[in-house]
Design brief:
Structural class: alpha+beta
Order of helices and strands: HEEEHEEHHE
CATH class of the largest domain: Alpha Beta
Helix content: 25-40%
CATH architecture of the largest domain: 2-Layer Sandwich
Protein name: OsmC family protein
Strand content: 25-35%
Strand order of the largest sheet: 1-2-3
CATH superfamily of the largest domain: K homology (KH) domain
CATH topology of the largest domain: GMP Synthetase, Chain A, domain 3
Pfam family, one: OsmC
Shape: globular
């Protein structure tokens, strides 16, 4: 039997909301979240898109990259380390011709510049991957996530 008592979600959950609006008569969309920043999405031209925005699956990888980047930078900053440049490359593998086609393997390459201790960089990335990054937690049930890093 289901519990019919209402749950006060405001006390238990953080709410996130976006709005998606169709921009043209094809597949160009504008999405805006609670931050108020607008993002554009579009479909591939071979299905009628106009290449006016990122593909939804690209945005998932961008979210993963942004999530782990914020974690790693914050951890390294707390250690009083100076990062001269920080970049990520993310490669996602999906099965060709499958529907749906979730990511099965994801590899993140962290590219850092600065006087950085490789052991501390590795530890920061491990903490992001294993403990802090919510986007990583979303992908883990369906995708193998690996990483490498380079310090210049």
């Amino acid at each position: 039997m289901l519990d019919s008592q209402p749950v006060d979600t405001a006390q238990k959950f953080n709410t996130m909301q976006i709005e998606l609006v169709r921009v043209d008569d094809a597949f160009h969309f504008e999405a805006v979240g609670m931050s108020g920043v607008k993002q554009h999405m579009d479909a591939a031209t071979d299905i009628g898109g106009h290449n006016e925005g990122a593909r939804p699956m690209e945005m998932l990888l961008m979210g993963l990259a942004g999530c782990t980047a914020i974690d790693v930078i914050l951890i390294l900053q707390k250690q009083k380390l100076t990062i001269d440049d920080f970049r990520l490359k993310v490669d996602g593998l999906r099965e060709k011709g499958a529907t749906p086609a979730p990511f099965q393997k994801i590899h993140i390459t962290y590219l850092l510049k600065g006087q950085l201790d490789p052991d501390k960089v590795k530890r920061a990335i491990d903490l992001s991957m294993d403990k802090y990054c919510s986007a990583t937690a979303q992908f883990r049930p369906s995708a193998e996530i690996t990483y490498s890093f380079e310090i210049a």
